[in-house]
Amino acid sequence: MHKIALYPGTFDPITNGHCDIINRALNLFDHLIIAVADSRSKKPLFTLDERIDMSQRAVADLDRVEVVGFDNLTIDLAKEHNASILIRGLRAVSDFEYELQLGYLNNSLDDSIETVYLMPTLQNAFISSSIVRNLLSFNGKTEHLLPPSVESMIRDLDSCTLP
User: Fold this and answer.
1) Of the four, 82, 88, 158, 162, which is 20 to 30 A from 13 by CA?
2) Residue among 79, 81, 91, 155 flagged as catalytic
3) Domains and CATH numbers, the chain
4) Cβ-based burial of 91 (10 A; exposed 0-12, middle 13-18, buried ≥19)
5) How many CA atoms lie within 13 A of 79 on its CB side?
6) What is the average pLDDT across 143-156?
């Protein structure tokens, strides 16, 4: 049976922690869709198109992965793509309560779609997009937190894009 998993997130920007989860998911599922949320309410630093481009660059060398943007319910997107699994990353205990609530909510909307929680390696457990955005706002070092193609893209963006 062909198992399709959906990994939704804002990916503002996609980090080595996200890539760690992506690689772990590829060990478990036949096809993985990286779903980049519009998330206007979160006021992302990067546009949806930029975040999609970054995500595509980050997974360019991986087979069985595609990147899509979306602005609807995650469950509806999963149905559109015949995905039966939602992937969520857990870095710390602080993530667990929110992710558990989200998992229960999604299950209440469609109980045929399962949520699988994956942990990054210890090396990547502290990385979050918000930490990266904070470092970027101070022109701090982010090479160790981002895929090289994403780091390069961010540094090439017009400096007026970054705070």
Assistant:
1) 82
2) 91
3) 4-161 (3.40.50.620)
4) middle
5) 11
6) 94
Please provide the average confidence, as pLDDT, over all residues in the chain: 93
Residue 92, token pair as written in the block: 């710390």
* Residue 91 is among the residues annotated as catalytic for this protein: yes
79 is catalytic: no
Verify whether residue 18 is a known catalytic residue.
yes
Q: How far is CA 161 from CA 30, 44, 135, 137, in A?
A: 37, 11, 14, 10
Mean pLDDT, rounded, for 73-98:
93
d(CA 163, CA 103): 33
pLDDT reading at 117 higher than 80: yes
Which position among 3, 42, 64, 137 bears the catalytic label?
42
Q: How much is the pLDDT for 158? A: 54
42 flagged as catalytic: yes
Partners of 118 in the β-ladder: 89
The stretch 87-116 carries a mean pLDDT of 92
Q: Which of 18, 51, 57, 88 is catalytic?
A: 18
pTM over 0.85? The answer is: yes
